[in-house]
Specification:
By secondary structure, this protein is an alpha/beta fold. It has 14 helices and 27 strands. A 7-stranded mixed β-sheet has the order 15-14-25-24-23-16-17, covered by helices on one side. Strands 2-1-5-3-4 form a 5-stranded mixed β-sheet, sandwiched between helices. A 5-stranded parallel β-sheet has the order 20-19-18-21-22. It is globular and about 85 Å long. The structure holds iron/sulfur cluster (SF4) (3 copies) and FE2/S2 (inorganic) cluster. The site of one iron/sulfur cluster (SF4) has 13 residues, from helix 4 and helix 5.
Length: about 575
Amino acid sequence: MDQVKVTIDETTGSVPANSTILNAARLMGVDIPTLCDHPAIEPIGACRICLVEIEKQRALQPACTFQVSDGMVVHTESPRVVESRRFVLQLLFSERNHFCMFCQMSGSCELQDLAYRYGLDHWEYDRAFPKLSVDASREYFATDHNRCILCRRCVRACHTLVGNGTLGVKGRGVEAMIFADADVPLGESSCVSCGTCLQVCPTGALMDRASAFMGATDEIDRTKTTCTFCSVGCGAELITRDNRVIRVEGDWDAEPNHGLLCEIGRFGLLHETRRRVRRPLIRGEKGLAEASWDEALAGVAGPLRAAGDKTCVVISGLASTEAARAIVQGLPGEKALMEGALSGDGRSPLSVLDEADVCLVAKTDLTLNYQVAGFAIKRGAHHRGARVIVLDDRENGLDPWAFRKFAPEELSKAVAIAKDAQQPAIVYGPGGAALAAQLARALPRATLVGFPPGANSLGIASAGVSAPFVPNGAPVYYVLAAESEQVSDALLDALRWAEFVAVQACFREPWEDVAHVILPSPTAHEKNGTVTNREGRAGRVVAAATSGLPSEVEVIERLAALLG
Ligand code: SF4
Ligand code: SF4
Ligand code: SF4
Ligand code: FES
């Protein structure tokens, strides 16, 4: 790539010729403040906080949109620039209510940081402060229009990154407001609660119910980890304060999600309503009662020893590879995957969906599962005119994005549309694998993008367990459940009829009625390990908080030791 020489604040460096001044400054380690700009979203140059002085240019120019040229000399903190920034900030602070001391984001707000940086300690202009509404109709976060600076990061993130296009701006000037769809409350809108807008909002206008007032930037810790709730395997950051996870954010640097998360990955565990298991539970006459680890492990070892090879061990796809390996090495009996396995070869990278011109979605609802992949399909339909063909006999969340929808038996109609495509992709989860295989035979040039059930069925398979669970009349069951909630009726039935059932789980539900012993497990936010995503990429799961519980592996090893 062509390079040009630029001088920014007395430092001269060589940067790619197509850089904006802001990107060039970042490359050279110079900090230019921004508000409407966000590295993951196309810049629009709206807020004017990044204005810089360029030699031989009469007017100040926005660094986020102005391109560098060879020999350019830029001043980012000249008296003229600082005066302009103070003016922009004064306007922003007087347009709406930014009494920071009453704001839940005080201490972690980009607007407030800039006020400190440029020494704003009083209002220079009359404060208009219209009383604006707070929209608290969404479950996980609220929108306080009084704190909104109309930077439109949320609008652009929802449109460009998520492909959902829920948000817009209505009205002009001081009347301008963020709104959803046809101006409906956000909780009734097409919003899918992915929280991307929340993550990019620079102020307290979008407030996370779980982390509001919970901690300023310097009071929190960030831990990079991998989401363990589906096989997309998104990179996430856990935000903690005082050993408590208060927020989950997408990791902008991570493959394959590049900062995006879905509702489940971002909010699921923080808003979990099931009852946590913190002590081992043993079934007695009055139901499950707390017991010591020694009692509980001895209570499990006895039936497992007696059943030996007749034991059936069921491993959830949410479990780590290390826990699965410990089970394979230490526990007797047949081992099976709780959610089944995915047949077919669909390990192509998720980025295929950002290039495909036709996406055939086979009996899989990507708005319910593997949602971040669904965002890629929506982006394609919205921004590149990619044609989405849904093959499903049920309602599918991607129906509104579909160019055509067919019943699975109308496969030939879908093939007729896709056969001339340049880069067709066939997308499928476990329920659509057979249909995807049929489509692949008819469209040999299509790329298969498959989603195995569970987050880690590939990792668990590498530990030696790849058979799906099928009821086999085993008298004794050991279930490594982790956080699993969606359990098949076939498994629950088998457990109900078994003589003895031990479950290693984070929550009582849905095991309470079937388990004779429940051994508590740390959650995904509290454990270390590895998971392998659908592409075969190993991701590290890193504990951000301690639960005081032994790890899954430790429990299995203690049990294995008792079994000899
Ligand atoms: S939560 Fe996601 S879908 Fe909803 S408005 Fe924000 S970015 Fe859009
Ligand atoms: S809600 Fe936040 S991100 Fe959206 S325009 Fe307002 S301040 Fe910007
Ligand atoms: S798409 Fe899957 S891996 Fe990504 S955040 Fe959602 S549940 Fe987690
Ligand atoms: S950050 Fe450049 S104009 Fe807003």
